[in-house]
Queue: 4 jobs
Job 1
Amino acid sequence: MKRDNFATRLGLLAAAAGSAVGLGNIWKFPYITGKNGGAAFILVYLVCIVLIGVPVMLSEFALGRKTQANAVGAYKKLEPKKSWYLTGILSVLTAFIILSYYAIIAGWVFSYISKAITGKLTSVAPSALGDYFNGIISQTAQPLFWNFVVLAITAFVVIAGVKDGVEKYSKMLMPILFVLLIILMVRSVTLHGASKGLEFLFKPDFSQLTPASILEAVGHAFYSLSLGMGIIMTYGSYIKKEENLVSLSLQVTVLDTLVALMAGIVIFPAVFAYGLEPNSGPALIFVTLPAVFKSMPFGSFFATLFFALIAIAAITSTISLLEVVVACFTEQFSIERKKATILISIALFIVGIPSTLSFGVWSDVSIFGKSIFDAFDFLTSNIFLPFAGILVCIFVGWIWGSKNAAKEISSYGAFSFKLEKVYSFVVKVLAPVVIGMIFLYFTGIMDKLKSVGTMLPNIVL
Ligand code: PHE
């Protein structure tokens, strides 16, 4: 079977950056920054991105391009007799589960667009917005309908293929995303009292920074760059040998970080200008910001632009998640693309139902003390992702070998790769150790170890 490829460099960049730029940048980054004290957290995040994010992204691109195969096939090609392909299966499974609930949040965003256009959103009293949001997400039919819309749009693009679907639409949507971001940024910073928000964003307060925030920064760097899910690997498999992977990875990372910061510049000045709290957590964009839009002249218009922006960011990410799963099924099981996409999308819709209901009629159901939605999120973001991340690093660093990876990265000498030694050290040692720590921390194992540690002296004495 002939494999599809990205046709242009710009299209490739738009698709990879489109995957990276998502709800993580516009929804999660601002609220975790708000929670962790603003600028100090951003500094730590930048260090994590450069030190861990870029090398791991390079490794995934290299693995994909070398093998010209999907996330499972790549391991099978390099180590046919070993079980490394299980790492690929873990990545594909993670992508599937993440997509099943990511599409639900994207669905909320779509429903907010429809409410912003009609002016309904800005007619709600600010104090009632929390209940309004809960009222929307706790229903059954409406969220499922919007979830269906998101999956249908995603499937439509993926069916069209890499060049005529993923590339074409990313190239169209990403510039629109930037234009919307710039319009909203200008609006926000010109509000009276905006400077406090900028100060919050750019003046570090190290007292708010805890070891936990550092681990949160590494975890978010991984999530935001779409690493550990086989996405970058799969996209890498559609890249031509002449492409410079180092500059590509740097560009994707810079764009991703730029959008996260720009989203912060849209959100915080507006939040401070209207005297609202920056640390309202996940409710920041759905509850706090509509209050901001309500007080603004032409609020419905800006609210519509804002939610359209998030919708675009989310769709280019759902496309990449679905592509990983579809690429795996078409190649490993020789299922035709259209059929595979439709079947997987139906499965996603079904798996998403319990997560959707966990905000409403099933809100009492709990798995290990978490709602179904939170349990899925926890399992994938905090356990599967770091675990797959460590395995990718070990595979590239020690099994395939960082020397071989470096050859692929430099396109066999066509480009210089000056930081090869640093790269080697990061994939072999630093990244697995740091990611291992996040894993221990988020799974609660670290706390247990610590309490054993503090108990030990007593026992010994
Ligand atoms: N990187 C995307 C974001 O920042 C999220 C994402 C996660 C995309 C997982 C694909 C897969 O939102």
Job 2
Amino acid sequence: MMSDRARRKLLVANWKMHFVRAQALEYLRVFTERVRGVQKTEIVLAPPFTLLETVGRALHGTGIKLAAQDLFYEREGAFTGEISAIMLKDLGCAYVIVGHSERRRLLGETDEIINKKLRAALDAQIAAILCVGETLEERRAGRTHAVLETQMRGALAGLRLPSPSEGRGDGGEGECLVISYEPVWAIGTGVNAAPEEAEASALFIRELVAQLFNTEIAQRIRILYGGSVKPENFGGFVQQPNIDGALVGGASLDPEAFAQMAKIAERL
Ligand code: PEP
């Protein structure tokens, strides 16, 4: 079903735990220059919390959007070290990454926690980029789709997504949810999934969204691929009918490489 190329391409840089202010500003000096003229493709940068304000200010007027890499699900209170959706909204974040596999693995994030975080993001009208993906072991056991289904059902349980035509979310297309298919074995390893394999998972995710919500949302929702994406392989992913862009970690730390991907997306 459902190949709708009307969906705007989306490219997200996940800087993870990299850069201090001077490095971020130098990056932006190069990057904003290189992507001048990129208009059809939506570009989002997700710096660490400490850089959100600096990067947000520097992006003002560029059309490039700001994302956080995580949030906490409570609104405010005695939660030492945590950051709420309202705080992110205050800094101008349009997006927040939720459920990244590094957080699931290193910090014990469960589907239940992820569900609460999604709810908090939706309440604050910040578009969530939900990450799902299987480990190598799960893939070898032929469980990829079963794992995706468990993660999706758990993360999205009980959530009401406004239909895209309501335009309530703060994402570029007025949406409030983006899903990134990120096979864990491909993240930061240099081994990417084959584009056809990523497409099969993206299609599976889209069909599941139709079941969990409705076909309008499924047709409009943007699904990204993440896992060792770089300029040399990016085109192969974004040309797949159900893949609308990429979440890029390592290669997004190089402003030239990330800008190159934005230009490739723009041409396709
Ligand atoms: C990620 O952080 O989501 C990611 C896909 O990382 P990398 O591009 O480095 O594999």
Job 3
Amino acid sequence: MPSATLELDYANALAAAVGQAHGVSPAEIRRAQPAVKAAIVQIEKQRRQGEHRYRDLPADRELLRTVKAAARRFGPRMNNLVVLGIGGSALGMIALQTALNPPLHNLLPAGRRRGPRLFVMDNVDPVQFADLLDVLGPALPKTLFNVISKSGETAETAAQFLIVRDLLARRLGKKGLARNLVVTTDPESGTLRDLADAEGWFTLPVPPGVGGRFSVLSAVGLFPAAVCGINIDRLMAGAGEMSRRVASRSVRNNPAAMLALLLHAFYTRGKRMHVLFPYGYQLKDLADWYRQLWAESLGKRVDRRGQPVVVGPTPIKALGTTDQHSQVQLYREGPNDKVFILVSVEKFARDVRIPRAKTTPPALRYLEGASLGKLMAAERRATELALVASRRPCLHLRFPRITPHTVGQFIMLWEATTTLMGHLLDINPYDQPAVQLGKDYTYALMGKPGYEKQARALRRRCKPSRYLV
Ligand code: PA5
């Protein structure tokens, strides 16, 4: 019986596997441990003072009760769930759905799905949105919209929301807005909060102190998950279990501590590209979620005291086996500036056997009788060994199975690793000041009051280019 716990194997990241120049030595790990332990002690102390609130979400029984009651109230009558949100208000919930619902969920007949079809609109592409409105047109009464925005101000989500609000009001009236709309936003303030309160729409909270990219285990990810039939009790139990594991001061018993220690060690010696490489289609959007978490949290110009540092590992997502035929040439023979975190699944929920046939050409007979799961495992192992043969350091994160429990562990593991990495890099992992300027320019270009001066400056700079080819 495989254990139900995620495991991290770092043997192939060590100097013994990939050489002194590219691997981490046991002595280096010993030397780095005091700093990691000190960071853990500090984080746990800060938690007692109310910081790092995402770590406490799994223990919040009230949150689970509220979300499940809302899912029971709104979900069952609906054939479609449309989520409007972007960045931290979308990537985590998309990852949960891809990991824990069948890959072709939307194509299954209603009786074989555990919930409505799901559409996540995390872009303002006009063709995509117009197409969605066409598809939903006749089905509007049985379509639930969940608009998710902590700030309530994000231009993309706000624009989509205004379109949907108009549609619902025209087609279904006030009653439709009450029955077909759930707003997930800040519990106290913000434009969406004020509007929802004034109109009496149903709302769910994004908890205070939990930033967008750390919010998947709040109503942001949990409500769509529960509506689509994902077992959120088990998800949170897995996350809670990992939250306890990552509080351990023993680096060897704490996977977040070991991950942060190694990834920080590689970063400081010039391996600044961190490739998350899951072997399993269901995990592909968790890699997308990781990409935002790692990039937005750790890419910073100044340290905690405001001094310039300009740090940040570059997260890269790859998917096994697809990207073996796209990226591995670069990964093995290009610059040795990357660390690979391969993710395997010990036992897939389903498997397909390759049949035997008299007509199978001799060159393909080795495949007969094997399963796709076995081939996937062999390809993962083979790619790791091939990378190691080229002296590329590899970590291996092992999922016994993909279940709500292990996915909850994975999410908490990477969130806690991100916090620790922030401490080791001495930066604030919870802000994203560099995102603001682009937002302000968008406001200016779209004519938002208060941005007139910037709009004039931008118009001067947006002259037709003289460098067109
Ligand atoms: O991680 C973050 O804070 C961001 O990616 C936000 O989630 C994103 O900008 C969307 O913000 P909001 O939820 O306020 O619409």
Job 4
Amino acid sequence: MNHANLKKRTIMRHPGLAAILVAVALAANARPPTTSSDIDRIVHSMSLDEKVGQMTQLDISMLLVPGANTIAFDTNRMREAIVEYGIGSIFNPGLGHPMPLKEWHYLIRTVQGMATTETPHKIPILYGIDSIHGASFMEGGTLYPQGMALAATCDPPLVQACAHVSAMETRAAGVRWTFAPVLGVARQPLWPRFPETLGEDPYLASVLGAAEVRGFQGRNLAAPTAVAACMKHYMGYSFPFNGHDRTLALIPDYYLREYFLPPFAAAVRAGVATVMINSGEVNGVPVHASHYLLTDVLRHELGFRGVAVSDWHDVIRLHTWHHVAATPEDAVGMAVKAGLDMSMVPDDYSFPTLLKKAVEDGKIPESRIDESVRRILTLKMELGLFKDPYPEAAAVKNFARPEYRKVALRAAEEAMTLLKNEGNFLPLKKDDKVLVAGPTANTLFSLNGCWSYTWQGTNAEWYPPGEPTVVQAIRKEIGATNVVYDEGVDFEGMDISTANAVADAKNADVVVLCLGENSYAETPGDINDLDLPAGQQALAMDLYATGKPVVLVLLEGRGRIIRKIVPDARAILMGYWPGSQGAQAIAHVLFGDFDPSGKLPFTYNRYQNNFLTYDRDYTDGRPEAPDDTPQFEFGTGLSYTTFAYSNLKLTSPVLKGTGKLQVSVDVSNTGKREGMETVELFTHEFYASIAPPLKRLRAFKKIDLQPGQTRTVHFTLTARDLAFVNAQSQLATETGDFEVEIGNLEQTFRYEE
Ligand code: BGC
């Protein structure tokens, strides 16, 4: 350890000095900006160096003693970043893993102390973090389900509540910006970030994405319960042609606007403060270089007024990866001209240096730089950073409250999606003898997934003690004596002890077989084969051969192909990556304490080479192609009770122009227990100028019904709900015959312009 640095660190940690720094800083900002003209005045008085600095975002490691295993600031490196380069933003946990709040506060106080005392305009730092499914880099933070699981809940207020918990815990650490929500729609099943999304449907993702934005930001970014949200990754990232992370997407303009734009548009309408740009290419153009997407569409069409930040290294990659910029300087110029405000550089000073040169060489007008700086400073003002950039006492008390775990548990429970339940095999009896087997049965990785305490989520050291795995939760649920556990095979399906599992199955009443994926994030999660590894399937086959009933529990980020092991499973429960409370949720559902109500938010494919989505068109569903059906349709989700739909009514057979069509349907609980049902309204146009999809989700409502209870659910349809993007890239509703479909009921009507 470097003792010189240790000494510096000890001085910096001295509480008295910290208090003085705070006082000096607050005095320096005695009159913090409160209006846009105040921001304009600051921007006009800033030097070019200061301005390009504000547009720069660095990883915190750039300020720390290299290699130290605690937060140890190197004052020279820190001064270089904050004072010499005047950088505007820092991100990441210092050590790559969660830190206690105390450590976060020390970190935030230190950087803000220097920024607000030693820089010419005393501008505070905007600190960002990946609180993707909870404040995973804050020790003790609450991890709720990943996006795909949240989408299965079809419960906007619950999704909003999860994001709000995340906001409160993130802000409690002194951090006021999260790089979430993930708004790419999941239409490429191989893609390793599939589980971070809110499903394949643009409407569902729009409603839930907007709920997340509201949950993060609240009504007022300055409130100690709010953080700025960052919709990402704009746009087309989720549809790589070959399924690999950060590769080429080929998306015609109409398709881009029909399927990928709506969640971003909805987030803009919800007031999202920032956007992160897609690292990949759309139609050969890296999005970081696309003036069309970053300015014409995002700013001019959607009216986004916030800050556009690059993703990791992506500006320089216009030169080094994408080869669209011949030099690093061209890369910087290209991105800024396209519409970038801030570069997540994040580990050198190339960006501010080259940007300054580009302005001095007359390649970029300084007025363009001013625009970005204005946006960045406005966000800092809105977040209350000029008034008080330090961790706030009012925020700290909102950390790790017991009720947050209840929110995470509820979300995990509502996410649970029952895909198959032959002969009502589930729920299991609590006195059953159970063999719990499979590679996802006794690990926290497959419950939490990526961005869980570490980037990849696969470092056991950082998981909090006491969080149960599935087998532990089942033991808690029914008592340890009736539960035997055998891993059987590992994630890759390598044979460890199938024979033991088979032998143990013989003494069990039922086998709960937990299959699926380990945790992964981004490129390390790339796969070339969507099949569930053969060894995992073989374990299922061997267990089926014992004749004992087998329940499959799938813990996986993607829908790995399981065609061969579906028929003999008595029941299949999709658990996704359900977060810290996921194992309990699984136990509650398996043993009947919670009635499953999740709806599959993506189309679970049956074949490797036939990727379908629910909104496929007629060419995909032709009768002469009998196998052309997915394994499980979008929206699949059984309950322990039964629901019946009746009386689908439309107020008129014709919807005209700007009029409204009221739709109602009766939903009854015809079973024996209380249950929740998501009532989904789909529409379908019989003929249109672009081959119409077989159905599109246009509205949904989640209701709770007692046994025997019937409720009438109402929807209102307007022309906007029937619209699609036509060949001219315009949103249009064409005159024609439509069908509305709810449950197993259908009604036709006509729309006339
Ligand atoms: C990811 C982003 C993330 C960023 C900062 C990138 O590698 O693509 O989603 O926000 O890192 O950690």
